[in-house]
Amino acid sequence: MVARILPRPTVLSQPYWDGCREGVLRLQHCADCAQYQFYPRIICSHCGGTRLAWQASRGCGVIASFTIVRHGISAAYPAPYTVVLVDLQEGPRMMSSIVDAEPDQLCVGARVEAAFAEWSEGMVLPVFRLVDNAEGESL
Ligand SMILES: [Zn+2]
User: Fold this and answer.
1) How many CB atoms lie within 10 A of CB 17?
2) How far is the CA of 129 from the centre of ligand 1 (A)?
3) How far is the CA of 27 from the centre of ligand 1 (A)?
4) What are the structural domain ranges in the chain?
5) What region does 48 belong to: left with phi over 0, alpha with psi -120 to 50, or beta?
6) What is the CA 58 to chain-centroid distance, rounded?
């Protein structure tokens, strides 16, 4: 069986991965400028401050862009699957994937919410589910 390429948690990112295992999407929050950031960094990307703390995101956002991968790079990544850029309510944009939706249900502006998928034992990645489409129609 072909294995997926897995993220390698670091001291900096470990709280993020711990949160994913607990079903919580965590973002760094800056005490100096009150902005959130993703991915994890040692300084604030908005103001350069260093007073960063992990906070739970609401996990809600909208699709900023997406693409449908129709030819997987290996048997570990069965196609089709969707790569998506999500603008979280807290501000950061993150790359992820959409689950439990057909490609023709996706559109820029559709509301999504975080879910979590176990990629291997102990490694859980955030994914997103559609809440409704860009016209506000519930799915
Ligand atoms: Zn800041």
Assistant:
1) 19
2) 30
3) 13
4) 14-132
5) left
6) 12
